[in-house]
Amino acid sequence: MALKNYIPNALTCGNLLCGCLALIKVFEGDLVLSACFVGIALVLDFFDGFMARLLKVSSPIGKDLDSLADMVTFGVVPAMVMFKLIIIAIMQHVYDLAPATKGWTIYPPLTPDSANSYLPYVALIIAIFSCIRLAKFNNDTRQSDSFIGVPTPANAMVICSLPLITAFQPGFQAIISLLNNPWLLCILSVLMSVLLVSEIPLFALKFKNFGWADNKIRFIFLALAVILFASLKFVGIPVVILLYILLSIVNNIFLKKEV
User: Fold this and answer.
1) How far does Cα 134 stand from its chain's mean position?
2) Which of 21, 42, 43, 48 is the most exposed place for a label (fewest CB within 10 A)?
Protein backbone atom coordinates (compact mmCIF):
# COMPACT_ATOMS: atom_id res chain seq x y z
CA MET A 1 0.00 0.00 0.00
CA ALA A 2 1.33 3.47 -0.92
CA LEU A 3 2.69 5.65 1.86
CA LYS A 4 0.10 8.36 1.11
CA ASN A 5 -2.66 6.05 2.39
CA TYR A 6 -1.22 6.26 5.89
CA ILE A 7 -0.84 10.04 6.09
CA PRO A 8 -4.45 10.92 7.11
CA ASN A 9 -4.54 8.14 9.74
CA ALA A 10 -1.17 9.28 11.10
CA LEU A 11 -2.61 12.78 11.57
CA THR A 12 -5.65 11.27 13.28
CA CYS A 13 -3.37 9.36 15.65
CA GLY A 14 -1.60 12.65 16.37
CA ASN A 15 -5.00 14.06 17.31
CA LEU A 16 -5.52 11.15 19.71
CA LEU A 17 -2.05 11.59 21.20
CA CYS A 18 -2.78 15.25 21.88
CA GLY A 19 -6.04 14.24 23.52
CA CYS A 20 -4.23 11.82 25.83
CA LEU A 21 -1.65 14.48 26.74
CA ALA A 22 -4.46 16.97 27.36
CA LEU A 23 -6.09 14.50 29.76
CA ILE A 24 -2.83 14.06 31.65
CA LYS A 25 -2.55 17.82 32.06
CA VAL A 26 -6.12 18.03 33.35
CA PHE A 27 -5.24 15.43 35.99
CA GLU A 28 -2.16 17.47 36.89
CA GLY A 29 -4.29 20.59 37.22
CA ASP A 30 -2.76 22.47 34.28
CA LEU A 31 -5.85 23.39 32.29
CA VAL A 32 -3.98 25.96 30.21
CA LEU A 33 -1.55 23.43 28.76
CA SER A 34 -4.42 20.98 28.35
CA ALA A 35 -6.22 23.57 26.20
CA CYS A 36 -3.04 24.05 24.15
CA PHE A 37 -2.94 20.32 23.34
CA VAL A 38 -6.59 20.48 22.29
CA GLY A 39 -5.69 23.40 20.01
CA ILE A 40 -2.98 21.32 18.34
CA ALA A 41 -5.45 18.45 17.99
CA LEU A 42 -7.92 20.77 16.24
CA VAL A 43 -5.30 21.56 13.60
CA LEU A 44 -4.50 17.87 13.13
CA ASP A 45 -8.21 17.03 12.94
CA PHE A 46 -8.68 19.58 10.17
CA PHE A 47 -5.70 18.36 8.17
CA ASP A 48 -6.48 14.63 8.41
CA GLY A 49 -9.72 15.19 6.48
CA PHE A 50 -8.06 17.72 4.20
CA MET A 51 -5.24 15.32 3.33
CA ALA A 52 -7.67 12.44 2.80
CA ARG A 53 -9.58 14.52 0.24
CA LEU A 54 -6.40 15.89 -1.33
CA LEU A 55 -4.77 12.47 -1.69
CA LYS A 56 -8.13 10.85 -2.55
CA VAL A 57 -7.70 8.13 0.06
CA SER A 58 -10.42 6.98 2.43
CA SER A 59 -11.39 3.82 4.26
CA PRO A 60 -13.92 2.60 6.84
CA ILE A 61 -11.02 2.19 9.29
CA GLY A 62 -10.02 5.82 8.79
CA LYS A 63 -13.58 6.98 9.46
CA ASP A 64 -13.85 4.93 12.64
CA LEU A 65 -10.39 5.96 13.77
CA ASP A 66 -11.31 9.62 13.35
CA SER A 67 -14.44 9.24 15.48
CA LEU A 68 -12.60 7.34 18.20
CA ALA A 69 -9.87 9.96 18.36
CA ASP A 70 -12.46 12.75 18.41
CA MET A 71 -14.29 11.03 21.26
CA VAL A 72 -11.19 11.26 23.43
CA THR A 73 -9.94 14.70 22.41
CA PHE A 74 -13.23 16.53 21.84
CA GLY A 75 -15.49 14.46 24.11
CA VAL A 76 -13.69 13.19 27.20
CA VAL A 77 -11.16 16.03 27.47
CA PRO A 78 -13.70 18.92 27.52
CA ALA A 79 -15.82 16.94 29.98
CA MET A 80 -12.86 16.60 32.34
CA VAL A 81 -11.84 20.25 31.83
CA MET A 82 -15.36 21.31 32.82
CA PHE A 83 -15.29 18.83 35.72
CA LYS A 84 -12.13 20.54 36.99
CA LEU A 85 -13.51 24.04 36.37
CA ILE A 86 -16.57 23.28 38.49
CA ILE A 87 -14.36 21.95 41.30
CA ILE A 88 -12.24 25.10 41.12
CA ALA A 89 -15.35 27.29 41.23
CA ILE A 90 -16.67 25.41 44.27
CA MET A 91 -13.29 25.64 46.02
CA GLN A 92 -13.16 29.37 45.45
CA HIS A 93 -16.53 29.74 47.17
CA VAL A 94 -15.94 27.24 49.97
CA TYR A 95 -12.26 27.87 50.74
CA ASP A 96 -11.78 31.27 49.11
CA LEU A 97 -8.98 29.90 46.90
CA ALA A 98 -8.03 31.59 43.64
CA PRO A 99 -6.38 30.03 40.58
CA ALA A 100 -2.82 30.92 39.74
CA THR A 101 -2.29 33.62 37.11
CA LYS A 102 -0.85 31.29 34.44
CA GLY A 103 -2.57 28.05 35.30
CA TRP A 104 -4.12 26.13 38.15
CA THR A 105 -2.73 24.53 41.24
CA ILE A 106 -3.98 21.11 42.32
CA TYR A 107 -6.75 21.70 44.84
CA PRO A 108 -7.56 19.24 47.63
CA PRO A 109 -10.34 16.81 46.65
CA LEU A 110 -13.93 17.59 47.52
CA THR A 111 -15.09 15.53 50.47
CA PRO A 112 -18.62 14.08 50.72
CA ASP A 113 -19.61 16.76 53.21
CA SER A 114 -18.28 19.60 51.03
CA ALA A 115 -20.87 21.98 49.63
CA ASN A 116 -22.06 20.86 46.20
CA SER A 117 -19.64 17.89 46.26
CA TYR A 118 -21.56 16.04 43.53
CA LEU A 119 -22.02 19.07 41.28
CA PRO A 120 -18.86 18.50 39.16
CA TYR A 121 -20.25 15.18 37.89
CA VAL A 122 -22.78 17.12 35.81
CA ALA A 123 -19.86 17.80 33.45
CA LEU A 124 -19.74 14.14 32.44
CA ILE A 125 -22.88 14.71 30.36
CA ILE A 126 -20.56 16.40 27.85
CA ALA A 127 -18.72 13.13 27.19
CA ILE A 128 -21.97 11.17 26.88
CA PHE A 129 -23.59 13.58 24.43
CA SER A 130 -20.34 13.89 22.46
CA CYS A 131 -20.42 10.14 21.95
CA ILE A 132 -24.05 10.32 20.78
CA ARG A 133 -23.14 13.23 18.46
CA LEU A 134 -20.30 11.30 16.82
CA ALA A 135 -22.43 8.18 16.41
CA LYS A 136 -25.20 10.23 14.77
CA PHE A 137 -22.71 11.92 12.46
CA ASN A 138 -21.32 8.59 11.25
CA ASN A 139 -24.78 7.28 10.38
CA ASP A 140 -26.64 10.41 9.24
CA THR A 141 -26.52 10.86 5.45
CA ARG A 142 -27.77 14.44 5.86
CA GLN A 143 -24.38 15.44 7.29
CA SER A 144 -22.18 14.68 4.30
CA ASP A 145 -21.81 18.37 3.31
CA SER A 146 -23.12 20.14 6.42
CA PHE A 147 -23.77 19.49 10.10
CA ILE A 148 -26.84 18.77 12.18
CA GLY A 149 -26.02 19.98 15.68
CA VAL A 150 -22.82 21.56 16.97
CA PRO A 151 -19.71 19.55 16.00
CA THR A 152 -17.66 18.12 18.87
CA PRO A 153 -14.54 20.16 17.98
CA ALA A 154 -16.55 23.39 18.23
CA ASN A 155 -17.90 22.32 21.62
CA ALA A 156 -14.38 21.49 22.80
CA MET A 157 -13.17 24.91 21.63
CA VAL A 158 -15.77 26.68 23.77
CA ILE A 159 -15.06 24.69 26.93
CA CYS A 160 -11.28 24.66 26.62
CA SER A 161 -11.22 28.42 25.99
CA LEU A 162 -12.59 29.07 29.49
CA PRO A 163 -9.34 28.44 31.42
CA LEU A 164 -7.45 30.47 28.80
CA ILE A 165 -9.79 33.43 29.35
CA THR A 166 -9.30 33.27 33.11
CA ALA A 167 -5.53 32.87 32.88
CA PHE A 168 -4.68 35.41 30.19
CA GLN A 169 -7.51 37.96 30.05
CA PRO A 170 -8.07 39.24 33.60
CA GLY A 171 -9.58 42.43 32.19
CA PHE A 172 -12.82 40.57 31.42
CA GLN A 173 -13.87 40.45 35.06
CA ALA A 174 -17.58 40.09 34.32
CA ILE A 175 -16.97 36.94 32.29
CA ILE A 176 -14.48 35.55 34.81
CA SER A 177 -17.00 36.09 37.61
CA LEU A 178 -19.50 33.99 35.67
CA LEU A 179 -16.89 31.26 35.24
CA ASN A 180 -16.44 31.21 39.01
CA ASN A 181 -20.07 30.21 39.50
CA PRO A 182 -20.35 26.38 39.61
CA TRP A 183 -24.09 26.44 38.86
CA LEU A 184 -23.61 28.48 35.70
CA LEU A 185 -20.87 26.08 34.59
CA CYS A 186 -23.31 23.20 35.09
CA ILE A 187 -25.94 25.03 33.03
CA LEU A 188 -23.33 25.62 30.31
CA SER A 189 -22.47 21.89 30.36
CA VAL A 190 -26.10 20.94 29.80
CA LEU A 191 -26.66 23.64 27.17
CA MET A 192 -23.62 22.66 25.11
CA SER A 193 -24.55 18.98 25.40
CA VAL A 194 -28.05 19.67 24.07
CA LEU A 195 -26.61 21.68 21.17
CA LEU A 196 -24.41 18.71 20.25
CA VAL A 197 -27.42 16.54 19.48
CA SER A 198 -29.83 19.27 18.39
CA GLU A 199 -31.48 19.27 14.99
CA ILE A 200 -30.11 22.70 14.06
CA PRO A 201 -28.59 22.59 10.54
CA LEU A 202 -25.15 24.24 10.53
CA PHE A 203 -23.14 25.11 7.44
CA ALA A 204 -19.75 23.45 6.95
CA LEU A 205 -16.57 25.31 6.04
CA LYS A 206 -16.04 23.19 2.94
CA PHE A 207 -15.49 25.16 -0.27
CA LYS A 208 -16.54 23.41 -3.49
CA ASN A 209 -15.48 26.59 -5.27
CA PHE A 210 -14.48 30.10 -4.20
CA GLY A 211 -17.29 32.06 -5.83
CA TRP A 212 -19.14 34.60 -3.71
CA ALA A 213 -22.61 33.42 -4.70
CA ASP A 214 -22.07 29.87 -3.43
CA ASN A 215 -20.02 30.78 -0.35
CA LYS A 216 -21.21 34.15 0.92
CA ILE A 217 -22.20 32.79 4.34
CA ARG A 218 -18.75 31.21 4.72
CA PHE A 219 -16.89 34.37 3.67
CA ILE A 220 -18.98 36.50 6.03
CA PHE A 221 -18.35 34.11 8.90
CA LEU A 222 -14.60 33.89 8.30
CA ALA A 223 -14.25 37.68 8.05
CA LEU A 224 -16.19 38.25 11.28
CA ALA A 225 -14.27 35.43 13.01
CA VAL A 226 -10.91 37.04 12.17
CA ILE A 227 -12.13 40.39 13.52
CA LEU A 228 -13.44 38.80 16.73
CA PHE A 229 -10.29 36.76 17.34
CA ALA A 230 -8.09 39.80 16.73
CA SER A 231 -10.07 42.05 19.06
CA LEU A 232 -11.19 39.64 21.79
CA LYS A 233 -8.46 36.95 21.67
CA PHE A 234 -9.56 33.92 23.73
CA VAL A 235 -12.88 35.53 24.61
CA GLY A 236 -13.50 35.51 20.88
CA ILE A 237 -13.62 31.71 20.76
CA PRO A 238 -17.03 31.20 22.40
CA VAL A 239 -18.29 34.35 20.67
CA VAL A 240 -17.28 32.95 17.26
CA ILE A 241 -19.02 29.63 17.98
CA LEU A 242 -22.16 31.54 18.99
CA LEU A 243 -21.85 33.57 15.77
CA TYR A 244 -21.53 30.31 13.82
CA ILE A 245 -24.79 29.02 15.27
CA LEU A 246 -26.63 32.32 14.70
CA LEU A 247 -25.38 32.68 11.13
CA SER A 248 -26.45 29.10 10.42
CA ILE A 249 -29.95 29.89 11.68
CA VAL A 250 -30.07 33.03 9.51
CA ASN A 251 -28.74 30.97 6.61
CA ASN A 252 -31.49 28.38 7.11
CA ILE A 253 -34.27 30.97 7.28
CA PHE A 254 -33.27 33.58 4.71
CA LEU A 255 -30.72 31.98 2.39
CA LYS A 256 -32.62 28.75 1.75
CA LYS A 257 -30.21 26.45 3.57
CA GLU A 258 -27.20 27.14 1.45
CA VAL A 259 -24.56 24.53 2.35
Assistant:
1) 13
2) 43
Residue 71 CA, distance from chain mean position: 11
Q: Dihedral sign for Cα 231, 234, 235, 241, please.
A: positive
Helix (H, G, I), strand (E, B) or coil at 206: coil
Please state which CATH number belongs to domain 3-199. 1.20.120
Kindly list the domain boundaries of the chain, sorted by start residue: 3-199, 202-259
Query: Which residue stretches of the chain have pLDDT < 70?
Result: 1-2, 93-116, 141, 143-145, 207-211, 213-214, 255-259
- Determine the residue type at 96: D
Convert the pLDDT of each residue in 101-157 to its tens digit. 444 444 455 554 555 678 899 999 999 999 999 998 888 767 666 788 899 999 999
Burial code (b: 16+ CB inside 10 Å, e: under 16) for 166-184 equals bbeeeebeeebeebbbbee
Reported pTM: 0.86
